[in-house]
Write a structure and sequence with these properties.
Blueprint (H helix, E strand, L loop, with lengths): L5 H23 L4 E2 L13 E3 L1 H4 L3 E4 L2 E5 L5 E3 L9 E6 L3 E2 L6 E2 L5 E3 L8 E4 L2 E5 L5 E3 L12 E6 L12 E2 L11 E4 L2 E5 L16 E6 L10 E5 L8 E3 L6 E5 L12 E4 L4 E4 L4 H5 L4 E10 L5 E9 L4 E8 L8 E8 L4 E7 L12 E8 L4 E6 L2 E6 L13 E4 L18 E10 L5 H10 L2 H4 L4 E10 L5 E21 L6 E12 L3 E7 L7 E9 L4 E3 L3 E3 L9 E3 L6 E7 L7 E7 L5 E8 L4 E7 L7 E9 L2 E10 L2
Parallel strand pairs: 8-10, 14-15
Antiparallel strand pairs: 1-7, 2-5, 3-4, 4-6, 9-12, 10-11, 11-13, 15-16, 16-17, 18-32, 19-20, 20-22, 21-32, 22-31, 23-28, 23-32, 24-25, 24-31, 25-26, 26-27, 28-29, 29-30, 33-34, 34-35, 34-36, 34-37, 37-38, 37-39, 40-41, 41-44, 42-43, 42-45, 45-46
Length: 647
C-alpha cells in the first residue's frame, strides 16, 4: 500500500486543479464563448487558493458567476469573491464573452512582465490575440506575430482581419526636416514615431532614443515610399531643377542656350547639355549603399556612341557608378549597362545586355531600372518592366558609397580622364529619374511601368475604348462606354437627340479622376425615339475643360443583335458569334485589352451578311486573369465585355 503524506497530497491536488483549469481556459479562448460555470469548482469557505507554481490561473464559481484570482495576488483565503478585490469577476454564468476584448494593442515601447503573481497578459497584434507565455517574466520590443518570439507569446485566437498599411501613407524621413513629438515617418521599410520634442538629422534606425518603431508597412504601387530623390524634368525655373523629395537642386548646363520644357521630359542635345546636382542630402547619398534602385524614363535620339543617363562619383576613395547606353553599328548591337567601380580596390561589378529593345530615334518612351541588393548578391537591369540581365556575384563586392557628385546626362566633369569637361553625353528626352533606398520587387517595377509612363501623364484626359448604345431586351436603350485610362476626369455627360441637331443632357456620371485601369459606365434610357435616336458623350475635367466624342444613332424596332462569346473562362481560344441583323458587309475588328488598358491582341476578318462565327486565338503570352474584348463592325461599336483567361 502506497502512503502519501498530507503535504504531498495537497501539492498534487493543487497541481491537478491548476492543470484542469488551464485546459478549460484554453478551450474558452477558441472564440466568443458561453461561460459554463459548471466546469469550474465552487468557491469554498475556508479554502486556501494559491497563485504559486508558475502563476497558473485559479478559477471559482460563486453566486452564479465566474471569478478568477486577481493577477497581483499570490494567496487568498476566507473572504467571498464578491466582497474583495482578491478576485476579478469574469461574468455571470451563461453570459457570452469574447476574449479579444481582454487584449490591448501591443506597444513596442512597453515592457511586459508577468510579475507579480503571474498576472495574465493579453495583447492584440496584427488582428490576433496573444497571451504572454507561462514562465516568461518580461518582454520588450518582441512583436508577438513574429515566429522567433513564440517562446514569449502564445497565440490564442484570431480577432479581426488586419490590413498592412501602405508605406506611402507616411512621410519619408528626411535629414533636413526637424521633427517633433508624435510625428510619424517611413524609413527603410518601417514606420516610426518621434519620441522627442525635437529631432533633426537623426535617422530612426540609428537613433532609437529619438524614434519608436511602430511596425512594418506594405510598399505602394508608385514606390514613393522608398524615394530619396526624384527629378521631375517638367517642373523647373530658369536653369535650376529641384528634386521632389530630398530637396537636392541640380543646375542645368546647356552652353548658354535657352531651355524649353518639352513635356513630357527635357530634350538633352547630346552636345553640351547636362544636369549637375548641387546639394546632395545625407538621405540621397545613403540611398546608394548596399541596397537600392535607380530608374528613369528615356527616349533616345542621337549618334553618340556611349551615352550616360546618370553618373555618380565618390571623389574620396575614387568610386563611381553609372547607367549608360552604347550604340552599336546595327540596332541588334545596341546595349545597355550599369556598373559599380572601386578603383582603390581595383574591383568592378557590371551588368550589361545586348541586344536591347531600344533604338535611337524610335520615338518611343522606355523605362530603365537597375536594382542592387547585397543581401541576395544580385545586380539586375530592367527595360520596360522586363529583366534583361542579372549579375549574381554582388555579395563579393562591398558597395559603400557616399556621393560627392551626381550628374544627369553625362559623366561627371572633373572625373579622372574627363579634363573637367562633360563626356559621353546623353542625347534624347529624359523624365522622372528616381533614386530609391531599397531594391524593388518585380510587382513594384511592373506597377511603376504601368502607372508612371510620361505618355500616360500627358495623354488625352480620357482614352475611350468604346461608346455603344444597344437596344434593351424589352424596351429602352442601354448606353454603355468604357475607358482604358483617365486623367483628371471629373464627370461624363450623356446627351440625347431625336433629330441629331437639338440635344438634351439626360445623365451626369462621375468619372474616376486619375486611373490607368479599365473603367465601365452605363445608363438605361427609357425614352428613346420610335425612329432613330442619337446619343453623344461629353467628358469634363476638374478644371472645366470638356471633350466631346462622336455621335452615334440607333433604331430599336426589336432586339437586333444576339452576340455570344464562349467558352468563358477561356484557355487557348474564344468563339464569337452574332447575327448581322442589318446585313452590314464590313470588316470586323476584335481587340483584347488587359486590365491596365493596354492592347494585347488584335484579330480581323470580313463580316458575313447573315450569321457570323469567329474563332479568336488567344496568344500564349496572355497570363491568367481578366481581359476586355472590343468588337467593331466597320466603324460601329458592336460589343465589349470582360472575359477570363485560365492557364
Amino acid at each position: 500500500m502506497l502512503y502519501i503524506v498530507p503535504e504531498t497530497k495537497k501539492y498534487l491536488m493543487k497541481n491537478l486543479l491548476y492543470t484542469i483549469a488551464l485546459i478549460l481556459f484554453s478551450q474558452l479562448l477558441s472564440a466568443q464563448t458561453t461561460i459554463e460555470c459548471a466546469d469550474y469548482p465552487a468557491w469554498e469557505v475556508g479554502a486556501e487558493y494559491n497563485r504559486d507554481l508558475g502563476g497558473q490561473p485559479v478559477w471559482v464559481e460563486f453566486d452564479n458567476a465566474l471569478y478568477y484570482m486577481a493577477g497581483d495576488k499570490w494567496y487568498v483565503s476566507g473572504t467571498a469573491p464578491d466582497q474583495t478585490d482578491d478576485w476579478t469577476l469574469l461574468g455571470q454564468c451563461g453570459d457570452q464573452i469574447n476574449w479579444c476584448d481582454f487584449g490591448n494593442e501591443w506597444d513596442s515601447e512597453e515592457t511586459y512582465s508577468r510579475d507579480p503573481g503571474g498576472e495574465r497578459i493579453f495583447v492584440l497584434s496584427r488582428g490576433d490575440l496573444y497571451e504572454m507565455a507561462w514562465g516568461e517574466y518580461w518582454s520588450f520590443n518582441e512583436p508577438p506575430y513574429k515566429e522567433q518570439y513564440s517562446n514569449r507569446w502564445t497565440y490564442r485566437q484570431h480577432c479581426f482581419d488586419y490590413v498592412t498599411p501602405q508605406c506611402g501613407e507616411y512621410a519619408l524621413w528626411q535629414s533636413d526636416i526637424p521633427y517633433s513629438k508624435n510625428d510619424e515617418v517611413f524609413y527603410n521599410g518601417l514606420v516610426y514615431k518621434c519620441k522627442n520634442w525635437w529631432s533633426k538629422n537623426r535617422n530612426p534606425e540609428d537613433y532609437p532614443a529619438d524614434w519608436m518603431q511602430i511596425g512594418e508597412c506594405e510598399p505602394d504601387g508608385n514606390n514613393e515610399s522608398c524615394l530619396y530623390a526624384m527629378w521631375d524634368f517638367n517642373n523647373f525655373s530658369d536653369q535650376v531643377f529641384s528634386d521632389t523629395v530630398a530637396q537636392s537642386p541640380a543646375t542645368l548646363h546647356n552652353g548658354g542656350e535657352e531651355v524649353v520644357a518639352d513635356n513630357p521630359g527635357v530634350d538633352f542635345n547630346g552636345d553640351d547639355m547636362y544636369l549637375e546636382v548641387d546639394q546632395i542630402s545625407d538621405g540621397l547619398s545613403a540611398s546608394l549603399n548596399n541596397e537600392g534602385s535607380i530608374s528613369c524614363w528615356c527616349m533616345l535620339d542621337g549618334d553618340n556612341e556611349i551615352q550616360h543617363l546618370f553618373h555618380v562619383w565618390q571623389e574620396q576613395g575614387n568610386r563611381e557608378a553609372g547607367l549608360y547606353f552604347e550604340q552599336g553599328d546595327t540596332p541588334d548591337q545596341n546595349s545597355i549597362g550599369f556598373y559599380f567601380s572601386d578603383y582603390s580596390m581595383q574591383v568592378t561589378e557590371t551588368v550589361q545586355n545586348m541586344p536591347v529593345p531600344i533604338n535611337t530615334g524610335d520615338n518611343q518612351w522606355h523605362h530603365l531600372l537597375v536594382n542592387w541588393n547585397r543581401n541576395d548578391g544580385t545586380l539586375s537591369l530592367w527595360v520596360d518592366a522586363v529583366m534583361i540581365a542579372q549579375n549574381q556575384s554582388l555579395d563579393d563586392f562591398n558597395w559603400q558609397m557616399r556621393a560627392d557628385h551626381i550628374t544627369l546626362g553625362s559623366k561627371t566633369p572633373g572625373f579622372p580622364g574627363t579634363q573637367n569637361e562633360p563626356s559621353e553625353l546623353y542625347a534624347g528626352k529624359m523624365d522622372k529619374l528616381r533614386f530609391c533606398s531599397r531594391a524593388l520587387s518585380e510587382t513594384e517595377i511592373q506597377g511603376m511601368y504601368d502607372m508612371d509612363s510620361p505618355v500616360y501623364e500627358y495623354s488625352l484626359p480620357v482614352e475611350l475604348l468604346y461608346f455603344n448604345p444597344e437596344c434593351g431586351t424589352y424596351n429602352g436603350v442601354n448606353v454603355e462606354w468604357s475607358t482604358a485610362s483617365e486623367v483628371n476626369n471629373d464627370y461624363f455627360t450623356l446627351f440625347r437627340s431625336y433629330d441629331g441637331e437639338n440635344w438634351d443632357a439626360i445623365k451626369k456620371i462621375d468619372g474616376a479622376g486619375n486611373t490607368n485601369e479599365v473603367q465601365n459606365y452605363s445608363f438605361h434610357d427609357v425614352e428613346p425615339a420610335t425612329h432613330d435616336t442619337y446619343y453623344r458623350l461629353m467628358q469634363t475635367d476638374f478644371d472645366g475643360t470638356s471633350e466631346v466624342f462622336d455621335v452615334l444613332a440607333i433604331y430599336c424596332k426589336y432586339n437586333h443583335k444576339e452576340i455570344t462569346i464562349y467558352p468563358n473562362p477561356a484557355r487557348e481560344y474564344i468563339m464569337l458569334t452574332f447575327i448581322n441583323e442589318h446585313h452590314y458587309e464590313a470588316p470586323v475588328s476584335v481587340k483584347v485589352y488587359d486590365a491596365s488598358g493596354r492592347l494585347r491582341h488584335e484579330q480581323n476578318y470580313f463580316a458575313d451578311p447573315e450569321y457570323n462565327e469567329m474563332r479568336i486565338n488567344l496568344p500564349p503570352q496572355l497570363n491568367a486573369g481578366t481581359y476586355y474584348m472590343q468588337v467593331k463592325l466597320g466603324e460601329q461599336d458592336l460589343y465589349a465585355s470582360p472575359f477570363v483567361v485560365q492557364r
